[in-house]
Please model this.
Amino acid sequence: MRNKSLIRPMVKTDSRWLETFLYLAVHVPAGQKPYPKSIIKEPSIDIYIKDYGKPDDVGFVADQDGEVVGMAFSRILAGPEVKGYGNIDANTPELLISVLPDYRGQGIGSRLVKALHAELAGCGYARISLSVQKTNPAVTLYTRMGYNVIEEQDDDYIMIKQLT
Model:
């Protein structure tokens, strides 16, 4: 049996894991070949981690026996050049979460998201948004955690959760 993961705030040295967890967060529909790792260098994806550590960036990691096994972080992605897929306005942070495949289904993702929600609410944010592909099993997690679909697109949902 595995030890329970420690959920802790992201620190500067955790930034080395951002590319790994960003890549894992890119949903690959069943039956489709995985995307090349270079996909995270595309501007519409890279903005989720580029120069991470700005004042509005908030993140948590799941640490198990000294190994980072999951990350949940948010940032406001409302720039004039490129917006986040789940951007709804310039005051709402957007969620990104990923857990290593061998650690999924153990409640780590829920614990990460709850920690992030609590921190964002404490910082005065009223809500958080995300974009998720309709075929992504995480839709169930987000719905269970109180996210609601506010926009349905061809392949994905834009969802929000009220924090305050």
Observations:
- The first strand starts at residue 6 and ends at 9.
- Residues 108-122 form the longest helix (15 residues).
